[in-house]
Write a structure and sequence with these properties.
Strand content: 15-25%
Order of helices and strands: EHEHEHEHEHEEHEHEEHEEHEHEEEHH
Structural class: alpha/beta
CATH topology of the largest domain: Rossmann fold
Number of domains: 2
Bound molecules: nicotinamide-adenine-dinucleotide
Number of helices: 12
Helix content: 25-40%
Oligomer: single chain
Largest sheet: 8 strands, parallel
Radius of gyration: 21 Å
CATH architecture of the largest domain: 3-Layer(aba) Sandwich
Low-confidence stretches: none
CATH superfamily of the largest domain: NAD(P)-binding Rossmann-like Domain
Shape: globular
Distance between the termini: 55 Å
Length: 352
């Protein structure tokens, strides 16, 4: 069993911990927290051992009547690998500690690409990270774009990607984020950081990205144009994208008109936290104009990187090949069941 430590138990960390628990070949050693808040309470209820992430705040746990199993260093020492899901920049600062205990670590998308040995997306470059000490699971947006780009590049070749990313102002719990009532070009200058970030996965790819921020918390929305090196039909592209492991090509009949409806579907489907681990691509939007492909996809910022972290654990430790790991992760998490029934809509009758 792979022993996994989780350092940083917030939006991403708690989801990764739950996904790791579900894996047949992994165990959570424990989670490191800075303070005894509601997430610490939830970790205890789930049976995770708590470790103090900061010496200066350790006393807060005792004052709250919460037992801790040790310090973060103890967690790192006992783990075969650590998933660091601390706020941006802290993962990089923690790198020295991981090196000291000779424990490989996964950092998250908010960290600088130059702070790590390699960047990771399971669909695109699984085989490149085995044996690395510090690997970054790329951000939610870069994950969403990479899952789209990999099959298109393999099947048709890509001349150029142009993507406009309409980003949620913050996660639902981030009450201090905005805008509250505005639409912000963000950043106002081109390119946004997303294009160069995608290049950490596809170094040769020609890609331009623009970013906006809007007053929403549900999901990000991508408007994507890919100039291909050939001219497949839209149906063929739709089928290719639908056949991928972590994509959901939304059929017209489901009537999903936006991110709100997708979240509702995820709740109806009983997904934990209404998480949507796959890219949600509107089938109707998949269009070809000559060699230009156009589509819209929605990306659930809080969860699409979760199965990627699970795969990155096996990839770094050399515990499974790409296909085996993706299948194992998807089955264990329930991702393989899909978000919606695959049946076609019943034919309308004359009485309807
Ligand atoms: P978060 O703020 O929700 O969670 C971070 C947790 O780490 C918090 O519980 C915080 O108290 C804790 N923490 C702070 N300092 C710590 C320390 N020194 N040691 C241990 N724990 C510490 O943040 P998040 O949204 O989970 O983001 C984590 C990383 O994942 C960032 O790099 C972010 O860019 C990336 N990411 C976030 C999202 C998203 O939508 N939330 C999506 C993809 C990637």
């Amino acid at each position: 069993m792979i022993q996994v430590g989780i350092n940083g138990y917030g939006t991403i960390g708690k989801r990764v911990a739950d996904a790791v628990v579900q894996q047949p070949d992994m165990e959570v050693v424990g989670v490191a927290k800075t303070r005894p808040n509601f997430e610490a309470q939830s970790a205890i209820e789930k049976g995770f051992d708590l470790y103090a992430a900061r010496e200066d705040r350790k006393h807060l746990f005792g004052e709250a009547g919460i037992d801790i199993a040790g310090d973060v260093e103890d967690l790192v020492e006992q783990s075969d690998i650590v998933v660091d899901a601390c706020p941006s920049g802290i993962g990089e600062a923690n790198a020295e500690m991981y090196a000291e205990y000779d424990t490989p670590a996964l950092l998250q998308g908010g960290e600088d690409k130059d702070a790590v040995d390699a960047s990771f997306n399971a669909r695109s470059n699984y085989d490149t990270v085995e044996g690395e000490d510090l690997v970054r699971v790329v951000s939610c947006n870069t994950t969403g774009l990479s899952r789209l780009i990999a099959p298109l590049a393999e099947e048709y070749g890509i001349e150029k990607v142009r993507a406009t990313l309409v980003r949620r102002g913050g996660d639902p719990a981030q009450s201090g984020r905005g805008p509250i009532n505005d639409i912000l070009p963000n950043p106002v200058s081109l390119p946004s950081h997303h294009g160069p970030d995608v290049n950490t996965i596809f170094p040769e790819l020609s890609i331009d990205t623009l970013g906006l921020k809007v007053p929403a918390t549900l999901m990000h929305m991508h408007s994507v144009n890919v100039t291909l090196e050939s001219e497949p039909g839209a149906d063929e592209v739709r089928e290719l994208l639908d056949a991928q492991d972590r994509t959901f090509v939304i059929p017209d009949w489901l009537g999903l008109d936006g991110a709100g409806a997708i979240k509702e579907l995820a709740q109806d489907a009983g997904r934990p936290r209404a998480d949507i681990w796959e890219n949600c691509i509107w089938g109707e939007s998949v269009s070809m104009e000559g060699s230009d492909l156009y589509l819209f996809q929605a990306i659930h910022q809080e969860s699409d990187v979760v199965p990627e972290n699970v795969d990155a654990i096996r990839a770094v430790l050399g515990e499974a090949d790409q296909a085996e790991s993706i299948q194992r992760t998807n089955e264990a998490m329930g991702l393989a069941d899909g978000l919606a029934p695959t049946r076609v809509a019943p034919e309308a009758t004359a009485d309807d």
